[in-house]
Amino acid sequence: MAIFSQNPGIADIEQTRGLITKTFAYMVTLLIGIFTFAIISLLVIKDNVNTINDKHDEFLLRKAFDTRQENIRSHLKDNAEWGSAYKHLHKTIDLVWAWDKQNLGKSLYDNFGYEGVFVLSPEGSTRYSVLNGKLWLDDLDNWVGSATKEDLLTKLRQHNGLPVSMLTLIDSVPAIVSAAWITTGGDTTVEVLPGKPSVMVFIEKLTAPKFMAIGREAGILNVRALPYDVLSSAPNETEFTLTIKNGVVRIAWDSANPGHQMIVYLLPLMLMSVLITIAMTVILMRHIMHKARINDEHMFLLDQARLKLITSEKRFRDVSETTSDWLWETDLTLRIIWLSERFSTVTGYDNSEWTGRRLDELFPSTKDAFKDCLNREELTGQFSFKNCPYLNSQYSTAYCTLLAKFVVQCDGTVVIRGAATDVTLEVEATKRVQFLSRHDELTGLPNRYQIKEFLTGQLNKEEAKNYPFSMICLDLDKFKPVNDIFGHSTGDALLGEVSSRLQSCIRSGDFVARQGGDEFMILLADTSQPGQVEEVCQRIVQELNRPFTIDGNDVTIGVSMGIAMAPQDSNSANDLLRFADIALYQAKQSGRNRWVYYRPDMSEKLTERRRMEAELKTAIREDQLYLVYQPRFNLRTSKVDAVEALVRWQHPERGNMMPDQFISLAEETGLIINLSNWVLRKACSEAREKLPGLSVSVNISPVEFQASDVAERIKTILDDTGLEATRLEIEVTENVTLSEPEKTCQTMKALKQMGVRILIDDFGTGYASLSYLRKFQFDGLKLDKSFIFSLGDSQQNQSVVEKIIDLGKAYSMEVTAEGVETADQLSFLKENNCDEVQGYYVGKPGAISDLNLFLANY
Fold it and tell me: DSSP alpha helices (H): ranges in 670-778?
């Protein structure tokens, strides 16, 4: 049979709810994984952007300092290479010319911010100085605070008197010191004296306001100088170290932190749909192309700003290489003219390998689409091709979305420019989601949706009625203990092995699927022969009963199967699945390792069972239950010293119901816990209030006794009702020791530590060994009534009862005989030292008021 994927359907409300919940969990897990990866990527990008921005700011500031020095040298050159300066400052010091007429006076401080202006003799002594805008004669080294003069004169000699500059610290403030020889500057009207020239020195302190101004010019906030050994804790502070003549200074500024802004704006955008992202990309590309055209049209006007244009182009390339897209350009024959550097990063190819080759060689699927675009009458507008496959350098298939546009260049030629966005992860994720929607992730088998689609298709065929087939629902027996004992990883591995064995059991054309948990489905294609289904089922039982070896552990499980036939049982896919589930339920109820065929009456029984389950829930909630008490007579004291609480159900329609009519249902559906809690609480409360001095015993099902919280539940009820723990007795059948004996032993120890007594009920009808009597240390033993009924049948039956009483005595247990209905039975039990008796001869179960009346008349 072929399998065709169609839309999944719904079998019933409970199963659909489970499948939807599981699908939702897978989707949420996938989305969380994608979102987490995106967050980590954003954080890494944020740090990279901040680092690049800080390096760029550092470059601008260093450039600003270099420009500052260049400006002061240029200004110094204008003043030093000046015939008038040579005449009035070298030949002689003319204060009127220099100070009064402000040729080299206070204006240099007011207009240019030069805190120090010096004229030095050829020997280095100060002949004229203006300090902080005031005429004040001081030695250069003394005012600077370090030996600077000699270094300046040496550098001047090395540079033939041309302006030189250096950075130094003056009063812990960075300063630019620039010096030049005073010359005539080519003024032939001024006579040049022989000997060494005088030196003119300009000094500018880079004070805090000046640092701030430098920062503003570069677009950088709060630029400041910090001493090298002073720590700063300002937020978002970035710095670099500037080595100067007499020390080290740290240049700090407030980082723009563009990475944080990127996080603030990009994180919400990540949640937007792919369509919005594509739209924004198209808008961005249109904007870039528009700017490019404007730049081309105004190129002739920007000839004098060519350096800025080159810088702008470099910035554009840097930005394009930091994005996840790679850019391309082709001529109208699709021959690749240019590829961005990002191309090699994404595809693994070297750019030179593909430059000159055709773009549709890389993306063969776009060949016809490109041809249609190139055949337009007007080569204008833009176009896109989504999810185009190509082979990368590793020969694996990747996917790109191409966005392109026709561009008319200045010379009139038309080229195609575009961007390629790598969408490999999105395409693979979509394929994965599509696969998981119809397959089981753990085993790779088709899921319930797919088998239902297939069933629907097969049943709608005209020839379906001539080719009968069968639907088998399988449930693994004893699978839950595998998870509990060995862990879920072992359980998952076991399910994989089971799926492999099931596939080996079926015939060619048959179909295996997993519908979740430990449930599988098999569709047998042709079951026209009666024995075909039996043969497959027998193979399945044999294969799954063979032990599995998982991670060194030997695991044994079983299988139950329910079978529905088409078209015999139904021609509806929903009905076939439901009928197979019903038959599976019947198989599990009938015993394990078997298969059951669907019968119409099974639906009625299941409906009745579900109605009974709902009614039992209502009975517990609305107090339709009540207790009766049967006395237990002590043969040694000839008194009633305990009663057994027995539950009854006053059904509004069925009348009074006995426990054997609803206890098994409560155990199967999990309602036994709520029912037991009600009985315990009611019995403890009535015993404390209305049965002073008497102990009360309550039956606990082996199913609920395995619950890890049974001791805690009983303790809570005793605390709430106020009954002494020593007056409560718990009756369990001996079968309670067979499942998880270690957990059972721990629970019994916890109960005995509280003072609660534990009795074996219906002793002799279960499977417990004598070693369990010693290990679990029960307080009492209740002999099953079947032994008492048969006392008069033979001497052998009497001997058996005697031996059981002796056995109980040997293990220090009080022995109670149930079902005593005659005087002869009572007499026999007294003679053989039985401790207590219970039965209709001693007292029938009755309401608590009847019990009190019985005790009063006893």
Answer: 672-690, 702-705, 710-721, 741-754, 770-776
Domain span(s) for CATH 3.30.450.20 in the chain: 54-205+214-219, 272-430
State the Cα–Cα distance between residues 815 and 804, nearest whole angstrom: 9
Strand partners, 404: 383, 418
- The CA distance from 581 to 575, in Å, is 10
Spatial separation of the C-alpha atoms in residues 370 and 50, rounded to whole Å:
41
| 571 in Cβ contact with 459 (< 8 Å) | yes
Output the six-digit token pair for 287: 């904007």
Cis geometry, peptide bond prior to residue 692 (ω within 30 degrees of 0): no
Question: 54-205+214-219, superfamily in CATH?
Answer: PAS domain (3.30.450.20)
Alpha helices, DSSP H, located in 395-528: 424-436, 448-459, 480-486, 488-505
Is residue 570 helix, strand or coil?
A: coil
Q: Name which of 578, 669, 512 is nearest 15 in CA terms.
A: 578
Q: Give one word for 161, left, alpha or beta, with left for phi > 0 and alpha for psi -120 to 50.
A: left
208: pLDDT confidence band, cut at 50, 70 and 90? confident
Q: Tell me the torsion sign for CA atoms 571, 573, 577, 578.
A: negative
Q: What values do phi and psi take at 481, rounded to 5? A: -60, -30
At 7, the pLDDT band (50, 70, 90 cuts) reads: very low
**Which amino acid is located at 124 in the chain?**
G
Under the phi-then-psi rule, with left for phi > 0, alpha for psi from -120 to 50, and beta for the rest, what region is 516? left
> pLDDT for 394-420, tens place per residue?
888 888 888 888 888 877 788 888 888
Question: In sequence order, which residues have a C-beta less than 8 Å from that of residue 703 and are 6 or more positions away?
Answer: 667, 672
Given the DSSP bridges, would you call strands 558-566 and 594-597 parallel, antiparallel or unpaired?
parallel
pLDDT of 525 higher than 70: yes
- Strands 655-657 and 639-651, how do they pair? antiparallel
Note the CATH architecture for domain 438-598: 2-Layer Sandwich (3.30)
DSSP helix/strand/coil, 569: coil
Residues 677-687 have pLDDT tens digits of: 889 999 999 98
* DSSP conformation class of 708: T
Region(s) of the chain under CATH 3.20.20.450: 610-857
Return the CATH architecture of domain 610-857. Answer: Alpha-Beta Barrel (3.20)
Residue matched to tokens 């032993």: 745
Could you identify the residue written with the tokens 């998880």?
740
The residues of the chain that CATH labels 3.30.70.270 are 438-598
Cis, bond preceding 258 (omega within 30 deg of 0): no
Alpha-carbon span 225 to 210, nearest angstrom: 10
The pTM is what? 0.40
Q: Which helix (H) or strand (E) holds 269?
A: helix 258-270
What topology does CATH give the domain 272-430?
Beta-Lactamase (3.30.450)
Work out whether the CA dihedral 788, 793, 799, 800 comes out positive or negative: negative
State the Cα–Cα distance between residues 788 and 435, nearest whole angstrom.
Answer: 65
Closest CA to 845 of 616, 623, 632: 632
- Kindly tell me the sign of the dihedral angle through the C-alpha atoms of 678, 684, 688, 692: positive
Helix locations, 546-634, DSSP H:
573-590, 600-621
- Count Cα neighbours of 572 within 13 Å in the Cβ-side half-sphere: 7
